[in-house]
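Morning run. Coffee first, then this:
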Amino acid sequence: MAQLWGGRFTKETDQLVYNFNASISFDQKFYKQDIRGSIAHVTMLAASGILTEAERDQIIDGLNSILTDVENGTLEITSKYEDIHSFVEANLIDRIGDTGKKLHTGRSRNDQVALDMKLYVRDEIVEIKALVLELMNTLHSLMKEHIHTYMPGFTHLQKAQPITLAHHFGAYMEMFKRDYGRLCDIYARMNYCPLGSGALAGTTYPLDRELTASLLDFAGPTLNSMDSVADRDYCIELLSALSTIMMHLSRFSEDIWNTNEYQFVELDDAYSTGSSIMPQKKNPDIAELVRGKTGRVYGALTSLLTTMKGIPLAYNKDMQEDKEFTFDAIDTVKGCIALFNGMIKTMTVNKDRMEASAKNGFTNATDAADYLVNHGVPFRDAHGIVGELVLTCIERNISLDELPLDDYKAICPVFEDDIYLAISMEECVNKRNTIGAPGPEAMNKIIEINEAYLKDLNK
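And here it is:
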């Protein structure tokens, strides 16, 4: 058992206790961050006169050799070690001797793991932001392509008013823009270095914490050593942001466009699966799995909140539970974003089916009422008149576009031939040009805003 403590103990740890306590099975993900943090630490120790330059160089060379050997597969991280910190330190001592024992000067595993977790989460936020940006780029392209692709908008899962596919995609674009902003906020708020906080009360060594923070690209050092080792707010914030991303992806997956009844889109074969018994099936498994995995990410957030709620200051071993939740949620979300992006980028849009569905769902009924209002009929009366028209169409199994003018006039003589233009899908959408609406004038303004937004992010 390779561990960083034991002098105070008179007997070996029970193997079951050791296994229960060990974290190497999952914190081995930190090997890069642990080595990077250790290099910054010894660089600072030498600059502060605590180590000699020769000791610094010998330790850094040893650390870099460990990193190289882990990455080329000649050095394996095994359960022989309690955690990633003991793996790195034990191998360093094996390679350079007693000088390696000076690596941990002025440092505790408490501030060390806090640093590793921050470095890891920070790196992952950068990767997740890149995936969200790629998804927004795809949505932006689809919006530009489908400004005149008419479809029904829904409320209560009932067809409501005509919109465009660009407008529908634009709603998700706004959601993912907020998601991207949340990730940026979390990065900025967490970007302070805990190393040098020790176990909880700092250290008597004259550490230059500002230098360490600078070497690791932090905005500065954390300002309270107890909070530094006890803080996992940034993990909770990230899991909350990831849960929101998954909620948005799940809502998108819930859209019923791919069903036999709607057939608004057809998913590419590469993003679909078949049935073991029904040869005709083409199932949207990616969308369904995204929807299902949302609960998994929610579970990680709830688990970490529950773990942290009962922990007194400062560090407690309970906090070891932060890693598996966070790692799994990160990996899940990254996979879901990438696959969802590929799915919508390659799907085929059936424009005719979309427009026909909008017409047959009476989505232009509000515009028929507005036509009457514009001809002097009070809105409440107009609402009732159009309700009668819809009932007539339902009885005849036709749309408002197909109802003869004589039937319009029989219910309300105000109607004239221009009603058909007023309730055409094109006219219904084109008239809606307040900012945020689906009309082409409004939509082009939004696309222009998004163009500038994405251009800045894509630099």
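The CA atoms of residues 304 and 322 lie 6 Å apart. Good start to the day.
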